[in-house]
């Protein structure tokens, strides 16, 4: 059975990603580092660290998350999107454009 799409009530076939173990390991490592950076930000705030220093650390976290997003987007385009286009599912282009627009708002 498909999964309900948020906001539309439509159901879509469950989709999964096809990341290699190397990519999964890289992404997990990056996310673990980001998690540590988030904990550092919390400590900085708790210790009344100068605002500019906290904001600098937050910018580093955002940059690291953007890097994870770019890696995921590249993999998505090279595998999932290509596979679906080859299968005649051209609506994946509209889905991709929505995702890219959402990423560009950040």
TrEMBL record:
| Pfam families membership | Trns_repr_metal
Bias regions of kind Basic and acidic residues — which residues? 1-17
Region feature (Disordered): 1-27
Q: Which residues form the signal peptide?
A: none
Tell me the protein's name. Metal-sensitive transcriptional regulator
Species the sequence originates in: Kroppenstedtia sanguinis
């Amino acid at each position: 059975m498909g999964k309900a799409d948020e906001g539309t009530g439509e159901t879509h076939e469950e989709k999964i990603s096809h990341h290699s173990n190397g990519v999964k390991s890289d992404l997990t490592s990056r996310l673990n580092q980001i998690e540590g950076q988030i904990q550092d930000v919390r400590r900085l705030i708790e210790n009344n660290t100068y605002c500019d220093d906290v904001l600098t650390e937050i910018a580093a976290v955002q940059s690291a998350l953007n890097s994870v997003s770019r890696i995921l987007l590249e993999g998505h385009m090279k595998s999932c999107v290509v596979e679906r286009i080859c299968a005649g599912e051209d609506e994946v282009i509209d889905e991709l454009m929505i995702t890219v627009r959402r990423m560009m708002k950040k």
